Amino acid sequence: MFNFRFGRRLAVNEESYDFPPFRPPSEADSLLLRVTRGCPWNQCAFCPMYKHIKFEKRPVQAIKQDINTAKAYTGGNVETVFIADSDSLVIKTEETCQILGHLHDTFPSLTRVTSYARALTLRRKSPDSLKKIRSAGLTRLHIGLETGSARLLDRIKKGAGTSTMIQGCTKAKEAGFEVSLYVLAGIGGESSWKEHAEETAKVLNQINPDFIRIRTLVPQPGTPVFQWWNEGSFQMPAPETILKEQRKLIEGLSVTSKYLSDHVSNYAGINGNLPEDKAKMLSLIDTTLDKLSKDEDLRADLENMRYLRRL
Ligand code: SF4
After folding, report:
1. What does pTM read for this prediction?
2. Which of 95, 111, 128, 262 shows its CA 20 to 30 Å from the CA of 228?
3. How far apart (Å, rounded) are the C-alpha atoms in residues 253 and 256?
4. How is the beta sheet containing 178-185 ordered, strand by strand?
5. At what angle do helices 93-106 and 127-135 cross, to 10 degrees?
6. Distance from the CA of 288 to the center of ligand 1, in angstroms?
7. What pLDDT sits at residue 3?
8. Smallest Cα–Cα separation from 91: which of 41, 16, 36?
């Protein structure tokens, strides 16, 4: 399958195709289609992604032209598409449906079309609008929960509390979307890891998403979290703490979800289907904790991951 990843950027005239800068790792082989630019919220304290981009809705005609350009490059052989940037369902439902219609007409072999979405945007959409978008062919939504702690959501300026997270995600599930939620390991710092794990498990249990995807906090320059860390008002959790936090989170889950550590920032490959793989996942954490207690090089390697700069 042809893919339009970052690495292919130079292969296409910039005038002819608007490349989005970010997509989930699970969409590495997908055609990337930019419906909006940037993030309409852009305030989360840990997030550097769109800080230098002014939020814009792209004209539907320009998006359709990008779909046509992609067809010219791929010959129509596209199976999966990721819609960018961070919250494209903020555009009118009719426009989303028009874009999805053109996408499916152009690429009849599509099996999956996904997008990032904010829980607040989903909560604001009517159930009928969400069902229309689902029927038009958007199949999966990637949503940043980060934490289920109301206090931490407020501190990191997520712009959505726990009830918004639960309502928005539940509406999306009821409309028929696959729901993929991101949890940010370490965002409670050294002091609040238990609160982060316990409260996150409670929210996930209420939503019962299809996917739980773990990212580990890597403070990025230019973000408030990086500043808090430098000033000392936020203490990055030790590698053991991150693993204990994961353990407590998994222990508290009573979901039927895929749990995936599918990101370069994570400290261990804790993956599985819940509930059946829970014991195996906990055992892997225990083994990693044991290794960590005996291996200073492993600790140094994991601690160095705090300094990753390109995620
Ligand atoms: S985490 Fe998502 S919602 Fe928050 S600022 Fe970044 S892109 Fe926007």
Report:
1. 0.92
2. 262
3. 9
4. 31-34, 80-84, 112-116, 140-146, 178-185, 211-216, 258-260, 272-273
5. 10
6. 31
7. 44
8. 36
Q: If you measure from the C-alpha of residue 47 to the centroid of ligand 1, how many angstroms do you get, rounded to a whole number? A: 6
Pocket test for ligand 1, best of 44, 116, 152, 218 (most atoms within 8 A of CB): 44
Token pair, residue 221, equals: 């320059």
Do 122 and 141 touch, CB atoms closer than 8 A? yes
SS3 assignment, position 142: strand
Task: Please tell me the distance from the alpha carbon of residue 101 to that of residue 108, in angstroms, as a whole number.
Answer: 10
| Ligand 1 closest atom vs CA 47 | 6
Measured in Å, residue 207 CA sits from the centre of ligand 1 at 20
CA-based nearest residue to 33, from 18, 50, 11, 54: 18
- At residue 184, the 3 state secondary structure works out as strand
Confidence of residue 210 (pLDDT cuts 50, 70, 90): very high
Closest C-alpha to ligand 1, atom 6: 47
Q: How many Cβ atoms sit within 10 Å of the Cβ of residue 225? A: 24
The alpha carbon dihedral of 228, 233, 234, 236 has a sign of positive
Distance CA 153, CA 305 (A): 24
Rounded to the nearest whole angstrom, what is the distance from the C-alpha of residue 210 to the centroid of ligand 1?
A: 21
Q: Does residue 99 contact residue 64 with C-beta atoms inside 8 Å?
A: yes
The one-letter code for the residue type at 73 is Y
Q: Measured from the CA of 40, which atom of ligand 1 is nearest?
A: 8
Type of residue at 163: S
CB 198 within 8 A of CB 252: yes
Q: Of the candidates 42, 39, 38, 43, which has an alpha carbon nearest to the alpha carbon of residue 154?
A: 43
pLDDT, tens digit, 9 for 90 and up, residues 29-68: 999 999 999 999 999 999 999 998 999 999 999 999 999 9
